[in-house]
Design a protein that fits this description.
Strands 3-2-1-4-5-7-6 form a seven-stranded mixed beta sheet, sandwiched between helices. Helix 4 packs across helix 9. It is elongated. By secondary structure, it is α/β, with parallel strands linked by helices. The protein starts with a helix and ends with a strand. The longest helix has 72 residues. It folds into two domains: 106 residues, no CATH class; 209 residues, Rossmann fold (3-Layer(aba) Sandwich). 56% of the residues lie in helices and 12% in strands.
Length: 368
């Protein structure tokens, strides 16, 4: 009888061992540090020192040990298996941590390779655009009409590389410009992007379903914009506007007026007013020269000619005939870059030193 019970205990203990080998699970969280010691005590019961009726209790214990010998064997095997389980769980935890570290390194390397591929792709786009622009110039037999926008004398390819280096990726620029799409959704006609560059905003308008095209005197930038599937034309913005009397539903010029002198900015606004249909919309986005932090970006670009204050641009737009206008401040300086504001004086200093980096003039051409 006892032998059969022991056989069953051994069989059950073997099942436990197999379960441990097959799928170890953590028991460390469920067991307090003294669990194993307390379990040992109950496997071999003893009479505590100072207990009453010690002889009687010892006699009873001898009887119980004989009667529960198989159960005790089983309990000992279970306890031993539980210890194996805990050890296996610890090994599994270390292996899991090692694999997690390896996976983290793989992800970091994958991100680095992705960035490198994007850089190489941009390099290819620039080289391809330069070649296309050179071939176009040779086939036309002319360098093209002189632009109304003053030229810096720098090669077109250099300025495109400058934008790639300092202005930001196409993805980041389009993300920031996407908020302007709604402004042009109700435009009464096609939208012109003056100085369209690489075509980021044209891509935003295209995705929003707004009919648009762009002009730029930088042939390499135009070639890159065309390669990205937007309608970009190698034309001077001033010359193009002179032939568009009332034909446009909207005009955008992002980071454009800084490249003009004051008289040219005023002329540009007048041409925009004449080129827009009634209800047409105008969007200008310059760097904010009232922010010392933003002036770093202004000085970085060798083709900038005039830091255009928001109040001056607003006055020029009013004088050009845009009766409905508003200024929107954009691109706040990251908080970690600005001063911690603990007083009103801190707030005043932040406003002048770390004010918004850009602003937008949004205007509408009311019915004539």
């Amino acid at each position: 009888m006892v032998r059969n019970a022991g056989d069953r205990s051994e069989a059950l203990a073997e099942e436990i061992r197999q379960g441990i080998d097959e799928e170890p699970r953590s028991v460390g969280d469920a067991l307090s540090p003294g669990t194993w010691d307390r379990a040992e005590r109950f496997l071999v019961p003893s009479v505590e020192p100072g207990a009453s009726f010690p002889r009687m209790k010892k006699l009873l214990l001898r009887i119980l040990r004989v009667a529960t010998r198989s159960q005790g064997t089983f309990n000992a095997i279970v306890l031993d298996g539980s210890r194996d389980l805990e050890a296996a769980t610890a090994v599994l935890g270390r292996e899991s941590a090692r694999h997690s570290e390896a996976l983290s390194r793989i992800r970091e390397e994958s991100a680095r390779v992705k960035r490198e591929l994007e850089r190489i792709s941009h390099e290819y786009d620039i080289i391809h655009a330069r070649l296309s622009a050179a071939e176009g110039a040779r086939s036309s037999g002319s360098a093209g009409a002189a632009p109304s926008v003053p030229s810096s004398g720098l090669p077109d390819g250099f300025y495109l590389r400058f934008e790639e280096e300092f202005r930001g990726s196409e993805k980041s620029i389009r993300s920031r410009q996407s908020e302007y799409a709604d402004f042009f959704r109700a435009a009464p006609g096609i939208v012109l992007d003056s100085g369209c560059g690489r075509g980021e905003f044209l891509g935003v308008l295209k995705e929003a379903g707004v009919a648009s095209y762009g002009v730029d005197s930088n042939r390499v930038a135009v070639q890159m914009a065309r390669a990205r599937g937007v309608d970009a034309r190698d034309e001077d913005a001033f010359d193009h506007l002179r032939g568009m009397d009332g034909a446009l539903g909207g005009i955008s010029a992002l980071q454009f007026v800084e490249h003009l002198d004051p008289a040219s900015v005023y002329e540009f606004l007048g041409l925009c007013r004449k080129a827009l249909a009634p209800g047409g919309r105008l969007l200008l986005e310059p760097i904010n020269p009232d922010s010392l932090y933003a002036l770093r970006a202004y000085r970085l670009d060798p083709t900038h000619r005039w830091p255009v204050p928001a109040a001056t641009l607003d006055l020029m737009a009013r004088e050009a005939g845009f009766e409905e206008r508003k200024i929107r401040w954009l691109s706040p300086v990251p908080r970690e870059e600005a001063l911690e504001e603990t007083s009103e004086n801190d707030r005043k200093v932040n406003r002048w030193l770390f004010g918004p980096q850009d602003y937008a003039l949004l205007a509408m051409n009311l019915a004539r």
